[in-house]
Amino acid sequence: MSDALDLTVMYATHDALRRDLAHLDRITTTADHDPRHVLADAAGWQLFKKALRAHHAAEDDALWPPLRQGLAGRPKDLAVLEVMEAEHAAIDPVIQAIDHALGDPDVDPLRLGQLIDALTRGLAGHLDHEEVVALPLIRRVLSAEQWGRFALAHAQHGDEDAPLLLPWLLDGADELTAARLLAGLPAPTYAACTARWIPEYAALDRWSPTTAD
Description:
Four Helix Bundle (Hemerythrin (Met), subunit A), 10 helices, disordered C terminus, mainly alpha
């Protein structure tokens, strides 16, 4: 029940997802690239999926349940959570369809482009909706302790892939956001991230040798 909750991780994750959606859009609209050849083995596509699934899993496990409890007896506000969960559920099948198309040598590139467009519109719309409608509820209803549990769950869901996901989250972040994200890391993680993980991520060709980042 605080307007002082630090939502830096939430907004930074949304911004990073939007950044990758924009890159996916460029891949599918560049005339001299077949998106199948770019995305089939692209590290960027795999990383995008890992980050999205970790983010949604943390919300499903540690954000929506306490928020639902705090909104008990408020059906209009509870309906917001139903919409958030429905939007989550609609995204995974599109990603699965894209992966299926990438594995099909006979797929029409136009069909793949349509699927990626559906992902872009669906996820971007969800992120906007969450920021406009759900985050104000979170600020009003959740305690700092409850938000802290979500932040911990968010970190734990990405822990296995932290050497990639942390630099991914920092990629393109403004100076203040990056400082806040780094300040919240345990000392050993901070040291590893700044000394090794960020340089290794910077050297990674996330979208294949045929595309420019």
